[in-house]
Amino acid sequence: MIVMAKSDIGKMRQENQDCYRVREISSDTALAVVCDGMGGTHGGGIASEVAINAIFEKIFISYRPEMEPKSIKNLLTSAISTANTIVFNKGREEPENRGMGTTCVLALTRGNDVFMASVGDSRGYHISDSGIEQVTKDHTYIAMLKEKGLPTEYGLSSMKNVITRAVGVEETVEPDYFEFTAKKGDVIFLCTDGLTNHVSDEIILEATYLKPPEEALTKLINTANSNGGKDNITAAIIAL
To answer: Whole domain around residue 51: which residue ranges?
Structure first.
């Protein structure tokens, strides 16, 4: 098993407001968390850093190898809820950062079992010899239109990139949760929209499944920058 991540400021931003933390907890267990901050001049960077530290530390300290899946679900979702409260309260205490928030996607792998949670439009993928599957759902205005069967051209304006759910913006947040079984050789891939807005699923599949993790991350970030690099770019890999 290999777990690693990489982040880049991109070509248009003055500050990298993405954050990531990854760690191999044991020989068969790994944790990866990716956040993409938003709000205010520096509020997004504050939100993503505060959230990722709260989430990572709660999971890392509380996780036990003997945990049942139900307990892992509770741990992951409660970690995000805790981070939401901390970021929300910090925004209320600092008027210049009121309304700041962050997306979040995280994955805990134990053997071949994968546990994933997300809020916002940072994505989690399962990559295997069967192809690439986006596990998470985007919490965006466009995704909401698609889910309701409405024409998406209504959202192709200033609403295109609007996030409908984020950590820290409201007093409470409901994370999505997923669990599934992978197999040896599969890849769990997490990333911010700074990557997916510029890189197709086909390129992600080719890079992550055919190249070593470090080389794959470098290729994907370079590709995102070559295609515009309009946002911060962050990606994490857990190679099983």
So the answer is: 2-134+164-239
